[in-house]
Amino acid sequence: MSTSRILAGQVLAALAACALPVSPAQAAGYQQPPANILKAMRAPALPGPSVSPTRDRMLLVAWQEYPSIARVAAPFLRLAGTRVEPANRSKHDTPGGYGIAPCAESFKLVSIPDGRETAIALPAGACPDAPIWSADGKRFAFANTTADAVELWVGDAASGKIRKVPGIRLNPMLNDELQWMPDQKTLLVKAVPAKLSPPPAKQGGPDGPNVQEADGEKGQSSTYETRDTLSSPHDEALFDYYAASQLTLVDAASGKTTPLGQPALYDGVGPAPDGKHILVSSVRKPYSYVTTYERFPHQVEVWDVARPGRVGVHTVASLPLADRVPVHGEPLGPRDFFWRATEPATLLWAEALDGGDWQNTVPARDKVMMQKAPFTAAPVEILRTAQRFAGLDWSERADTALLSEVDLNKHWRQTRIVNIDDAKQAAKLLWDLSFDNKYADPGSPVHRTLASGERVIQLDGDAIYLAGGGASPQGNRPFLDKLDLKTLQSQRLFRSDKSAYERFIGLSGGNGGFLTWRQTPTEAPNAFLRTLGQPVAAGQGEAAFSSTQTAVTRIVDPTPELRQIKKRLVKYKRADGLDLSFTLYTPPGYQEGTRVPAILNAYPLDYADAASAGQVSGSQQTFTRLYQYKYLLLAGYAVIDQASFPVVGDPKAAYDTYLDQLKMDAEAAVGEAVKLGVVDPDRVAVTGHSHGALMTANLLAHTDLFRAGAATSGSYNKTLTPFGFQSERRSVWEAPDVYRKVSTFFYADKLKTPILIVHGSDDANPGTTPLQASKFYEAIRGNGGTARLVMLPHEPHWYAARESNEQLVYEMLNWFDKYVKNAPPRAVKTAQSQPAPAQP
After folding, report:
1. I want to staple 470 with a disulfide (CB 3.0 to 4.6 A). Which of 435, 477, 506, 816 is the partner?
2. How far apart are alpha carbons 622 and 106 in whole angstroms?
């Protein structure tokens, strides 16, 4: 499918959730933090913008901060990497299985540029999904999840009136359930098949043994491919039942429906720009019990739907089961199908030339194939890439596209300007840089939506516009550039002021201006219309034009009490000279020169080169909002936030020095916070999530910097993910010492600093199964350590429910108050009592 349609499908699937009321009995046993923290946690959510393709309107969508535990606890089935609620067929998690997205609380239409607002009356108890604009900006469509269905709704952009399309129940289980056809009057949906029989019942007694067999060939599975796999014939039957959908065309005005083909297990679906052809991918048998449905056999076809009542089919590929793909590799055969945006029906795809294995040395890793309607001629090869193909981004002009490829070993990417129709025209190198190098990031091309709904790079003569995050040593300052593709000369049109965080969100309709989303630490995010003025003398990296701004929206601050919290960017060096940084938050009412207890939060990141590892990320000019551990600012703690914790080295061996680098990172961050006179060195805690939880446990086991820690959703024994983790690509059999050394589980006898371990009991991320937390706790307890294990019922990798998040803050506050804020002074250690350096 086209990249835009894939992303739209992922957004839709990720946000499909339903808010249901929770009874006092359901919430029994949950604890809450103090009233001032609870008030901040329950404050109204801030809306975000969705600009129409015609740029004359935007939708402000406010998302529920936390669904109720009743919503999170809704029964679901685990089927081949999906989690589906049988009651309504909604997805129970995001595509990655990391959490349950909340419902939209409100939609509001805003006219551009005058800012006139039109409230949209959502039905009582509604759980809307992300709205999808039609290319002409006249309508928007969205899914709405109820107790027994995922409904289809359509809205009118002029009046703000919305209506339910009767008789349609969407099936979002395999994504791509809702999209506009190129005529922008018709919706292509995946509907639940009509006249369904009851779901397959499990037969009495066991199904029999679950048998798997290895035949002597390598069959590695990446840790992240083996989530919620099938395990029995009954699972297979359930997968067949719930994944089946009926492709259907729906007239947005009349609601008239036209079925296409027969019900099947359709996953990827995308119409060609001509509206007459549809790319259809369907899951086939045999299934596998060791991987998810994405690796099952697939039939990829192009359907010709131009003839009423008939569907002509062209088979593009019949892909076999791909359960032996190398870790970080690609399956053999065609993959990554997409339509050419500027032609009626031209299909492209990539194929590996290296056996799908990055470890093989070859002159070219991928080739890109093309086939045009009516698909009677054989496909032709149009280009090859030295590294892994990463996409073709079409421009408005047929002779100009951007080709991207990536080298994951070197963390490197290249982008070239290509004309795929002229083999004699050499590709022109545009960008050649590390994707870790945030300071050099040129930004992303600005697109516009064609009448067909396809998105293409917008051209201004020979120039394109680029919008980027603007990372700099002073923090992120988003920008808008204009780049001439002939001369490769760039002109900076706009850069966010140093005292604000203002990012580009779209060119405005017809007046030469552009829209931004602006915020400061004390001003809530709002949309502004900027108009370029006269050229000005500008320093390096600054805008070469003046600009004026006009407010389009007027969103107010829902938590004014948080404006007393102050934050600042702090830069410092690691012992080996590497530049690092963190954001220091101080609690309300903080007096300079006063030392207070502090919480350090970080997430180790892997870098192939030291220069990129030391770069500053994020911004101190964003509107201050709190989450999880940051709510403890309201209890008097300082927060050392997003501290740089780089792990630098060749990705093939970076984790050989993981512990040493981790300790250097922590020593530098705590030392700098103490040096500033803000943090009490005797009252510092550490916390981290997922890979950050492993960091937390290792720092408690191997340093004496912290009085206590809180590790959430961690993986503490890496031998349970034997075919790699993070960017470590060696297996445990190739690097057993590395796996053992990074795993705190094997140092549980050394871990005497109090640790709070929190985990979701339904964590779907295979690298952080709930077993990781329970076994780690048992190891600490059995060796006489101090630990508390909190398993949050029904929660996935990221905690979704309001009750769960309130419990988490309650646990952290009590734990840190006891072992950090109110802990007695530490005994002075003699030389004999100093712990010996950890051995692998």
Report:
1. 477
2. 23
How far apart are alpha carbons 547 and 550 in whole angstroms? 10
Sign of CA dihedral 256, 261, 264, 269: negative
- With tokens 């207890």, the residue in question is 597
CA gap 284, 562 in Å, rounded = 53
d(CA 782, CA 762): 25
Phi, psi of 621 (to 5 degrees): -100, 10
The catalytic residues are: 690, 763, 797
Asked whether the beta carbons of 636 and 596 are under 8 A apart, the reply is: yes
- 20, 33, 69, 800, 805 from 23: Cα distances, Å: 10, 19, 10, 17, 17
DSSP state of 827: P
Q: Rounded distance, CA 19 to CA 27, Å? A: 15
Which residues of 386-524 form beta strands (DSSP E)? 388-394, 401-407, 412-418, 428-434, 444-445, 447-449, 455-457, 459-460, 463-468, 479-484, 490-495, 501-507, 514-519
**pLDDT (tens digit per residue) in 46-76:** 999 999 999 999 999 999 999 999 999 999 9
CA angle, 129 as apex, 127 and 134 as ends, to 5°?
A: 135
Model confidence, pTM:
0.89
Question: How far, in Å, CA of 585 to CA of 562, rounded?
Answer: 11
Q: What percent of the chain has pLDDT over 70?
A: 91
Angle at the Cα of 450 (from 426 to 429), degrees rounded to 5? 20
Give the tens place of pLDDT for each residue, 287-314. Answer: 999 899 999 999 999 999 987 566 788 9
Contact at 8 Å (CB) between 105 and 62?
Answer: yes
For 110, residues 6+ apart whose C-beta sits below 8 A from its C-beta are 57, 58, 59, 60, 116, 117, 118, 527, 552, 553
Give the Cα separation of 282 and 556 in Å (integer). 47
Instruction: Count the residues in the chain.
Output: 840
Tell me which residue has tokens 């080739």.
367
Instruction: For residues 435 and 413, give the distance between their C-alpha atoms in angstroms, rounded to a whole number.
Output: 6
How do residues 144-166 score in pLDDT, each as one tens digit? Answer: 999 999 999 999 999 999 999 99
* pLDDT value of position 835: 46
Q: Which residues, 6+ apart, have CB-to-CB distance to 424 below 8 Å?
A: none
Q: What one-character-per-residue DSSP string does 608-644 give?
A: SSHHHHT---S-SSSPP---GGGGGGGGT-EEEEEE-
Contact 545, 491 (CB under 8 A): no
Q: How far is the C-alpha of 603 from the C-alpha of 805, rounded, in Å?
A: 20
Question: What 3-state DSSP class applies to 146?
Answer: coil
Q: In what order do the strands lie in the sheet containing 312-319?
A: 266-271, 277-283, 298-304, 312-319
